[in-house]
Amino acid sequence: MPAITADTLTLPRLPDLPESATAWRGVRRIVRAQKFLEGEGFQVRRPFPGVDLSMADPFLLLDHMGAVEYAPGEAKGAPWHPHRGFETVTYMIDGEMRHTDSIGGGGVITNGATQWMTAGSGILHNEMPTQEMVTKGGLFHGVQLWVNLPRSLKMAQPRYQDIEARDARLLSSDDGGALVRLIAGELDGHQGPGSTYTPITYLHATVNPGARLTMPWAADFNAMVYVISGRGTVGAERRPLDEGHLAVFGAGEALTMRAADTQPSASPNWEILVLGGRPIDEPVARYGPFVMNTRDEIVQAFEDYQAGRLGQIPAAHRSAADEELPT
């Protein structure tokens, strides 16, 4: 797993939170991700939507892509499609993907990098394997997160952020047994590189077998942990949490989790995403690539897309198939 690594003994450490005097968040629900086909037919595991949307707010979707070893000619992507009303955050752990959009943003996302696209008022983009990945094949593993925008920012100007692996804020657990890569938001006074419209915290942690990871968590944020690989337990009640499962936490001011003493042979450590944010608490109307507040706004988004007001596919990338709106 080539997402950026570091010697945890040299990094700033998260605090050692006392067991008895800490308001630990309990586990409200554990969800097993369901499998779906996306784009040109690549498989994703999706833990939400599926949980009560109010429990995930301000997040809309989490797609776990891979890990899969593509043979030459097998790699697939998501051809040109529109978005409006939210942000897509693509975090590549292994392999590479090329992003292109209608406002000139994009590039290759690879090995620990994050591509953050604010669709806002509307944008067209594609997410495709690089030519090298198509030709040679290789390991592909990543995560895409959809972050909602409040009504006041649904029509914000589209923008693109390219967050390289080296940009992530690196932290350590109090005993050095876990490496934390803070991608966005604030954690114990440390700030991630991602610029967010919606207040969130988003991180990837590698927890050594048997190691414990604790962290303070904003009381007005919700909190979730998703397992990329390996196994462990979450909450003071030590609920088991294995690969492809999501834990949704209740109220409190801190999170605690622990990697199992032994890990599967394919995963030497427990790899997890920890994410949460301040709920927007507004009506959500969603259909395919559009997420707005009302059905009328969804209809308007379709009309704007069909009229070309969400942008144009660059001429060098245009084909007859791109005239069809994905479902």
Automatic annotation (TrEMBL):
<dbReference type="InterPro" id="IPR014710">
    <property type="entry name" value="RmlC-like_jellyroll"/>
</dbReference>
<protein>
    <recommendedName>
        <fullName>Pirin</fullName>
    </recommendedName>
</protein>
<feature type="domain" description="Pirin C-terminal">
    <location>
        <begin position="202"/>
        <end position="310"/>
    </location>
</feature>
<feature type="binding site">
    <location>
        <position position="127"/>
    </location>
    <ligand>
        <name>Fe cation</name>
    </ligand>
</feature>
<dbReference type="InterPro" id="IPR008778">
    <property type="entry name" value="Pirin_C_dom"/>
</dbReference>
<feature type="binding site">
    <location>
        <position position="125"/>
    </location>
    <ligand>
        <name>Fe cation</name>
    </ligand>
</feature>
<feature type="binding site">
    <location>
        <position position="83"/>
    </location>
    <ligand>
        <name>Fe cation</name>
    </ligand>
</feature>
<dbReference type="GO" id="GO:0046872">
    <property type="term" value="F:metal ion binding"/>
</dbReference>
<dbReference type="Pfam" id="PF05726">
    <property type="entry name" value="Pirin_C"/>
</dbReference>
<comment type="similarity">
    <text>Belongs to the pirin family.</text>
</comment>
<dbReference type="InterPro" id="IPR012093">
    <property type="entry name" value="Pirin"/>
</dbReference>
<keyword id="KW-0479">Metal-binding</keyword>
<keyword id="KW-0408">Iron</keyword>
<dbReference type="InterPro" id="IPR003829">
    <property type="entry name" value="Pirin_N_dom"/>
</dbReference>
<dbReference type="Pfam" id="PF02678">
    <property type="entry name" value="Pirin"/>
</dbReference>
<dbReference type="InterPro" id="IPR011051">
    <property type="entry name" value="RmlC_Cupin_sf"/>
</dbReference>
<feature type="binding site">
    <location>
        <position position="81"/>
    </location>
    <ligand>
        <name>Fe cation</name>
    </ligand>
</feature>
<feature type="domain" description="Pirin N-terminal">
    <location>
        <begin position="42"/>
        <end position="147"/>
    </location>
</feature>
